[in-house]
Amino acid sequence: MIPAAFDYERAGSVDEAVELLGRDEEARLLAGGHSLLPLMRLRFARPSLLIDIGRLDELRFVRDDGDRIAIGALSRHADLARDPVLAGQCAVLSLAAGQIGDPQVRHRGTIGGSVAHADPASDLGTVLLTLDAELIARGPDGERTIPASSFFTGPFDTALERQEVLTEIRVPKGAHGTYLKFARRAQDWATVGVAAVRVDGRVQVGLTSMGATPLRATAVEEAVAGGASPGDAAARATEGVSPRGDAAASPEYRAHLARVLVRRALEQL
Amino acid sequence: MKVTVTVNGARHEVEAEPRQLLVYFLRNQLDLKGTNVGCDTSSCGACTVLLDGESVKSCTVLAVQADGCEVTTIEGLAPGGELHPVQQAFHERHALQCGYCTPGFVMASVSLLRENPDPSEEEIRKALDGNLCRCTGYHNIVRAIQAAARTGA
Amino acid sequence: MSILGNRVLRKEDPRFLRGEGSYVENLPLEGALEVTFVRSQLAHARIRSIDASAAESMPNVQVLTGADVDVEPMVSPPPFGVAAGISRPLVARDVVRYVGEIVAIVVSEDRVTGADAAELVFVDYDPLPVVVDVHEALKDEVLLFPEVGTNVSGTEGPQEHDETLFDGCDVVVSGTVESQRLAPCPLEPRSTAAEVGPDGRITAWLSTQAPHGDRQGLAAKLGLEPEQVRVIAPDVGGGFGAKTLNVEEILVVWLARKLGRPVRWTESRSESMVGLPHGRGQHMTFTIGSDREGNVLAYRLESLADAGAYPGLGSFLPHLTALMASGVYAIPKLEASSRSVATNTVPISAFRGAGRPEAAQAIERAMDALAAELAVDPAEIRRRNFIKEFPYETETGAVYDSGDYEGALDLALRAAGYDELRAEQRRRREEGGPKQLGIGLSTYVEITNGVGETEFGEVEITEDGGAILRTGSFSHGQGHETTFAMIASAQLGIPFERITVVKGDTDDVARGTGTYASKSTQIGGVAARLASDEVVVHARQIVADYLEASPDDIVLDPAEARLHVAGSPAQGFAWEELAARAAADGRLAELKAQHEWKADPSFPFGAHVAVVEVDTETGSVELIRHVAVDDAGTLINPLVAEGQVHGGVATGVAQALYERFAYDEHGTPSTSTFADYSFPSAADLPSWETVPMETPTPLNALGVKGIGESGTIGATPAVHNAVIDALGHLGVTHVDMPANGQNVWRALQEARS
Predict the structure, then answer these.
(1) In this structure, which CATH number among 3.30.365.10, 3.40.50.1970, 3.30.300.30, 3.30.499.10 belongs to the domain C454-598?
(2) Chain B contacts to A (CB-CB under 8 A)
(3) Does residue A87 sit in the same domain as residue A139?
(4) For C208-245, how does the pLDDT look when each residue is reduced to its tens digit (9 = 90+)?
(5) Residues contacting residue C519 through CB under 8 Å, at least 6 positions apart
(6) What is the predicted ipTM?
(7) What is the pTM of this model?
(8) A8–B130 CB contact, under 8 Å
């Protein structure tokens, strides 16, 4: 189907994008377009203005920044899936990026676009939340750092102000772990996803599609810290969590999958 | 607005509405009807083309996003009459029936083999998870890609 | 050496590989108006009013509603057995009965404007109660057609049980199989274009499976003589039974006449998901009874069939289900019955298999259930009950032409390594790990050319000694341009490369019935062969005249492509020579013949073995192997035949493990896009292990049956049985399809409680 009409501007810099966002309340940023354009084709999203930041190559990088890995927001999923720095230092992020959609999607979709879009079924948001990543945003008042724990505020809703552009994501070095994604078909969104990582000796666990946002399975983390076995810790995966039911799964089945996948992820650590 | 794009080696400067998808730009502005539209949720891959050498779903790219880029469509794979090795392999392995999904699969396969010249069957199948076919059951498509890989396509 | 039986590469491939397919959407049509349909978002409602003023204020936009459409509603032909009083308006007038029903037509100069305008057509509805569940529909509390007084749109077979049916049985087992609603999903969405010529004659380009039938239908609906309508089906991107004349095609042609300009329309995928009819939708209960040794004595199949909002062919398909209810087994007492009900959903029609998959799904489940009850191996129980002599007439009146069910099963089991698989299954059960192995069988028979149809073939020799074959069959992926050319080549001796198959244009091909019901090779291919033979008879006459001999003394040497005096090869003509000379003498037109071939149904059969790995913790199922033996008689082109089986099996597996078109209780579809509807990709399926087997039919000179739907019919029950087999030791006896994920988990939960 055909999107509703909109105006289009190409931003030559982040600051220009910030300024353009200020002009129009219904403006949206366009990066890879693989979160936004599908919604626009079905006319579920109808921005009045699209600000194309897809050419800002300065936002496409993966760098060893000393104590963290810095990832440019316009890094594509395909880039992250095969990045050698990530492979050595934060392979769980590559693993998750490589499971998104299909190769064509991964050639276009960006980490910044995906994370800022904040679909509760998105994989990268969960991984970033689990890693306690930092998200760097630039707005009219300058730059600020948003911890992942405050970033995801609701379905398709983040802590980003209307005029802010997500520019960079920072993840810890040496964080090892896994991302398990359960889906009906290979190309599907996660019915349930589980990220489990060891960061600075701590085991941290995150859940995809178990709530309105990606979630940390804090009860599980507590149990592991207290010496529980993977099975016992995983039994607590659904504490404080109320997953939704939809065509893919009932709430009870999601809850069950979460427990199984958390156990399996912990066993892999 | 004006979109300047090189398609199959030929440079074009054409007016396009911002909301025009690349697939419709190719089909309607440039009269390249080989790239098909099979769905409206970026699921089926029938619209797959190469954008700066990589496979993309042209239904999920705005024409304006392709400004200044190089696009290869099915028509541009093998100019001059001969078939590209991937096309030839599809023919020899009976990897097409109604043909509607075929351009998308061929372009996806070309991109796959560029990134992974010697894929295992599992890698091939995983790499095709964004392309749907109702006719072939995929078996011969996988065989065709394996054959094309062996010929160094 | 005959070309038949060879793996000949397809002539039609180059244009598809180059992106030069002539799908309707690709065809230029000067000055065409674009049509966008406005469709109901409510499942059942009265239309109070339609406000199109905002839409019509857009430049050159026109909106028409049901009141403007002066074409009679569609009524199902009497053989479908649909209750009188049920008819389907082309555009809803007072009531909408399913989400997706057309309520208004937007006409615009371009498609983008049409999409924008369609959003501005505001329909005011009075919602009515909705019925989606077939059991609820049976209660007749919410009626779709109050004037009819019931939702029951058709019945088949005895509507009351014979209580003595299972007398004498030592064991009686019952169960249910819901053959869930599926969407056909041809990759090409429909596209239609129509133009009225200066002489008033209509040309309609349709994405269809049956151009001639559609021409009859269009003419009848619009009050025209068939000669006033030309239908061109160019390249069509798949049909699977769903692409038959529907309301949209009639409306586009009607609009072209009404508006005096060419008109075209192409549906989006989400439109197609509710615009094309759906398949399956039969809720079946089986009861099977046997003696202690597992010899089946009686079988009852009852089906409650969902016909959708406008019952049509879907109301008739249970007849085919009943006909094939006993499958490959000699069952002395049989009772097969069904009721079809209307619901506020997309109408049900034919989809790859069309009524026969349901029969196989039920009987194969029944056999496995019986095997489990008797603790007999599922292969063994089948052996004890196979029909062995042919022709065989079943209790339902189906006359199976030829078969070798035991042979098919043996081949399949050997190819699968059945004993090793059972050993592996035992090992895994002993280990008790989470991933268990399941092995599922199906042995099936199916009916092709099910209503015994006729097909047309015409062969014409061209001046350069080549040939044109005009066929009433219509390949939309099945490869007739290759296989029918092979058939003609084998009869004429003219090289395959010099034979062109023409199809799809009702001006080019005098008559035809199209392609569906897996009938084309056995009637269209045979008609081509017979027409070829007739041309040879005429050619022998002409050669006889030229050589002043008797036609009885003239023979065709196909290998040399030459007609000559018997015993004297030098005295004769190569086809090119004969054609050239005949043309010069004004006799070329004699080298042309038509033939129509009508045949009874034939009964391909086979055996499938599916191997699944079930993750008993998550319920996830992976099909790791699938062996398919599909015997459709003589294979003209094994390469093409295998492709048909591959595609058929994939669809059969998709029903077993992935797909289900779902509605919520308000009648709103929850799977109306390719993102929600689980149409599997290559990443979700394994490679197929096909094993050749050919048991010719005596019904035609080629010995061919039909293979297009066999893979689908054989595959679903094998995979379904495999999943249940994987979990049998855990007490599971039933899993709903798609037998994967949540449905498996539920079954495990129930077995544990």
Answers:
(1) 3.30.365.10
(2) 1, 17-19, 21, 24, 40-43, 45, 48, 51, 54-57, 59-62, 64-65, 108, 111-112, 115, 126-131
(3) yes
(4) 999 999 999 999 999 999 999 999 999 999 999 999 99
(5) C448, C449, C450, C453, C455, C513, C706
(6) 0.98
(7) 0.98
(8) no
